[in-house]
Amino acid sequence: MIYGNCEFVDKKYKPKKTDLIVEYRVKPIKGVSLERICELLAGESSIGTWTKISTMNPTIAKKLKPHAFYINKKENIVRIAYPEKLFEKNNMSGILSSIAGNIFGMKEAEKLKLQDITFPESIVKSFPGPKYGIKGVRKITKVKNRPLIGTIVKPKVGLTEKQHAKVAYESWAGGLDVVKDDENLTSMEFNNFYKRIKLTLKARNKAEKETGEKKIYLPNITAEYEEMKKRAEYVKKNGGEFVMIDILTVGWSALASMRKVTNKLKLAIHGHRAMHGALTRNPEHGISMLALAKISRLLGTDQLHIGTAGIGKMYGSAKEELSIEEEIEQQKIKANPRLNRLEQDWYKTKPVLAVASGGVSPLDIPKIVKTMGTNIVIQAGGGVHGHPNGTKAGARSMRQAIEATMKKIPLKKYAKTHRELEQAFDKFNLK
Predict the structure, then answer these.
(1) Which of 70, 104, 174, 331 is the most buried (most CB within 10 A)?
(2) At what angle do helices 391-406 and 161-173 cross, to 10 degrees?
(3) Number of folded domains in the chain?
(4) Element (H, E) at 303
(5) Other CB atoms within 10 Å distance of the CB of residue 419
(6) From CA 391, how far away is CA 396, in angstroms rounded?
(7) pLDDT reported for residue 54
(8) Which DSSP letter does residue 12 get?
(9) What is the pLDDT of residues 191-209, one digit of tens each?
C-alpha cells in the first residue's frame, strides 16, 4: 500500500534506539483495513500526503519515513517508529503537531487513542525535566518519611482574599503541610491574585512560627504568559517557594517557557491536570494520561496530579494510575502490554512527585498509602473543610489519619483517643 509515494507498513522493521515510538489504538471505519490505517497514520504524521507528488525523492524517504512495524488486529493496536530527525529537539508542541496532529481528524479512523510514547535519548535530554523532583520537594518541605498532606481552599471560588488567607492559616495550624488554590481560582474581582498572595503568605509565616513546621502554599498563577511571569515573580518576592500551573490549559509552550522563569526564580512547579478528561477519559479516543504525564515530566513539573487510584471522586482505575506513578518516579520503565505501556529510559531526568487529590477524606488515607506508597501528596478539600468542627479540626483529622497510618494503627482504634478523627468518621463514613 502506498501513501504519497511511500510505503510505511513494514512488519519486519526493528526499531532503532534513536526512534521515537508511538503506540496507537485505532478503530477504522467500515471497509478500511488496519494496514491501510497504518499507512495513513504514519504518512500523515510525517512526510506523506494524500496523493503522489513530484517533490518526493528516495533520499527524503530513506532518511525520514516512519515505519508501522507492529499491528495487533485483535486489540486494534499499532506501533509506529519515527526517525528522531523528524522532530525539532526541545519543542514539544512541534512533536505533538506530528504524532497527535492531523491524524485525529482523518475520516478513515472512527476512533484513535494515543496510548504511549517512547522518547529517544536525544529528545529526552533536550528537555530540562523537573528542577527539584521528589528529593528537592522533600528538602523544601522538610518532610522526609511520610506522604505530604494538604488541602485545597474551598469553596473553589467565592472567598475574599482575607477569607482565603484565614482558611489557609487554619489548615496549616491544624497540621497540614500544603495549602493549594483550586484550578479555577485565578484573579477575580472578589479575590485579587496579588492581594491573595500577600495575605496568604503572611498567614503561612504565622502558621510556621506557631507550629515550628515548614508550610507550603501553591498559588495558581495560570494566565497568559507575560502575566504568569509577573505572578511568579510576585510569589517569589513575597517568600513563596512554589507556583501552581494548569499545565494543559496554558499549553505546552507556555509551560516550557515558565520552566525557564521558575528556574531563575528558584520556584518549584505544581502541575494541575485540569481539562485532561477531555483527552484521556475515552479509552478508545484521545490521548492517555500516561502520555501526558510523560510530557509533563520532560517539560519540568515537580508535582503532578495523577488521580487517587480509583479511591476518590474522579474517573480512573488503580491499575492505570499506578502505572502513571511508576512512570513519573522511576528511571527505567519496562514495557507492559497489559497497561498499554512502552519501554522508557529517562536518562537521569528527575522524578516527579505524584499528587492524589479529588474527593478524598481522612478515612481514605490508609488505602491511598497502601496503594500508592509514601512518595505522594494527599490532598483533601471537602474532606478537610467539611469536618463538623470546621477547617482546623478537619486538618487535625488528616494529620491524625497520617500518623495512625504510618504507625500502622487502624484508624478506628486511633480515633478512640483522637477526637477530630472520631468526628471525621461520623461525617465521612458513608462511602
Answers:
(1) 174
(2) 30
(3) 2
(4) strand 303-305
(5) 14
(6) 9
(7) 75
(8) T
(9) 999 999 999 999 999 999 9
Per mean pLDDT, which range of 5-14, 148-157, 163-172 is the poorest?
A: 5-14
Same domain, 170 and 275: yes
Residue 104: Cβ within 10 Å count:
15
**Residue 59 cell numbers, joined:** 533520499
Q: Are 380 and 163 within 8 A, CB to CB?
A: no
The C-alpha torsion from 410 through 381 and 168 to 133, rounded to 10°, is: 80
Residue 81 is classified by DSSP as E
Domain boundary among 124, 152, 179: 124
* Catalytic member of 65, 113, 154, 392: 154
Is 272 catalytic? The answer is yes
Cβ atoms 35, 67 nearer than 8 A: no
Least confident range from 45-59, 91-105, 258-272, 363-377: namely 45-59
Are 48 and 4 a contacting pair, CB within 8 Å? yes
**Strand-pair partners of 336:** 341
The candidate with the shortest Cα–Cα distance to 81, out of 37, 22, 121, is 22
Tell me which of 164, 272, 305, 387 is the catalytic residue.
Answer: 272
The DSSP code for 103 is G
Q: What is the mean pLDDT of residues 340-344?
A: 95
Same domain for 95 and 244: no
> Considering the domain boundaries, does residue 5 fall inside one?
no
